[in-house]
Amino acid sequence: MFLMISFDTIQEAHDRIRPYIHRTAVLTNQTINERAGAEIFFKCENFQKIGAFKARGGLNAVLQVVQHKEGKAITTHSSGNHAQAVAFAARQVGMPAYIVMPRTAPKVKKDAVLGYGADVIECEPTLEAREAGVREVIERTGAVLVHPFDDDRVIAGQATAAKELIEDAGIERMFDVIMAPVGGGGLLSGTALTTHYLSPKTRIVAGEPEGAADAILSFRSGRVEKAPYINTIADGLMTSLSERTLAIIRAHVADILTVSDAEISAAMKLVWERMKIIIEPSSAVPLAAVLKHKEQFAGQKVGIILTGGNVDLGKLPF
Question: Where do transmembrane segments lie in this chain (predicted)?
């Protein structure tokens, strides 16, 4: 059984990372509200340092590695945004970082990792190859692993995004629903825990691509499942849950809704056109779920965490 992350742990994480992050804006859009039939508040982590919420968890973990003198280098595996988060955090504290990335990861994300001064080690696009790459780095350098999601310190850092959302837009009238996309489950776990502590009557609903639909299977069966197939434009959501994230999700998440790539692309285009902000496909998954299942959200106050804006502009889906 995993230790439960307390609200004090989340508050401490927020205090720890606050000097290094942006308190990102919460935006609304009348046209999108009318289309959805709901009142939606978007927490814009596409405006976060490194262009994604992952900066929060990466910083919270790396700052504690330094605080507790756990090692002299950092490593992780990631398809992109967590890679940038760890590289960014390592640069803040002056530590070398060794990032294992699948060769299929978007070039914009690899270039950003290199730009933060980290070493990129490419591997095949499988979890086994990523984990093998990290083991080799640890053996060679003695680096400390900051896992993308299977780590309480990372989850507590990600939990601070929902904390800000509730503090900034959910006090006068609490949210009926708060939504996040789900890949490995770090953000969803953190979001669910924060909401459980601050707004216990609020439902947590996740969005997941049909082309990487492992979390919904795991949610139903109670054990970590693999997706039947992996084929989605939401490149940040291709990872499976861990035992740790599944336990938190099953305790605190009400539902997981799946959407097609066409629905993800349409929601992403709607945000670009109507809100005039850039989000990546993974960010659009919860909005796609709201638009697909309008009856579940009709007339409700809905918070959505827009997870990031690191788009490969040469490969737009529209």
Answer: none
- Tens of pLDDT, residue by residue over 119-157, are 999 999 888 899 999 999 999 999 999 999 999 999 999
Closest to 181 measured CA to CA, from 60, 289, 49? 289
Sign of the alpha-carbon dihedral angle for 71, 76, 82, 87: positive
How far apart are the C-alpha atoms of 223 and 246, rounded to whole Å? 8
- Mean pLDDT on 57-69: 96
Q: How far is CA 219 from CA 5, 62, 110, 120, 206, in A?
A: 20, 30, 32, 33, 11
Q: Where are the beta strands (DSSP E) in 210-266?
A: 255-259
Pull the structure tokens for residue 183. Answer: 């890949």
Q: What is the fold of 54-145?
A: Rossmann fold (3.40.50)
Please give the share of the chain, as a percent, with pLDDT higher than 70. Answer: 99
pTM: 0.95
